[in-house]
Specification:
This protein is of the alpha+beta class and about 160 residues long. It has three helices and six strands; from the N terminus they run ααββββββα.
């Protein structure tokens, strides 16, 4: 019985290790921020717009819409650090973004989301829904199948030895 139990335990540990190896890792950030879930609550200003200028001191953007707070003008300047390692953001001139701001500054910790370019739709045309990205669940199925196969092989080996 000892041999069977140890073989089963070994197979289970190997299966668990395989699942961990195949599992996708969450993104790693070099800077540490407050919870990303709280970014909209903490933001003083949330705007959607197109970045017109990127400099060492920050960005300038044309505001398309204001979701929270009040933008003083259609042309907004925000301070931002360069590079995600310093919790800044690498904005691209001409890019469209949803940007959260606190005290006139933005970055990874305050909240930045790149958006698709604005598309002008003729008044007579109905808006077209964007396609939904497919889930990458195949990795989980592969890991589960491999784990079951390893477990079954371990049981067969344990039976033959016992």
């Amino acid at each position: 019985m000892k041999l069977r139990l140890s073989s089963l335990l070994t197979v289970m540990l190997l299966s668990l290790g395989l699942v961990v190896l195949v599992s996708p890792a969450p993104p790693a950030w070099a800077c540490s921020c407050v919870s990303f879930d709280e970014q909209d609550e903490r933001a003083e200003l949330i705007v959607v717009g197109t970045v017109t200028d990127v400099s060492d001191s920050g960005i300038r953007m044309t505001v398309e819409s204001v979701e929270k707070g009040a933008a003083a003008a259609d042309n907004l300047r925000l301070k931002v650090g360069r590079g995600e390692a310093s919790c800044g953001y690498d904005f691209r001139a001409g890019g469209r973004y949803r940007v959260n701001s606190v005290d006139g500054a933005t970055g990874l910790c305050t909240g930045v989301s790149p958006l698709p370019a604005a598309v002008s739709v003729p008044p007579a045309a109905a808006p077209v829904a964007a396609p939904v990205a497919e889930s990458s669940a195949w990795g989980w199925w592969l890991a589960a199948g491999a784990g079951v196969a390893v477990l079954a092989a371990g049981l067969v080996i344990a039976r033959r030895r016992g």
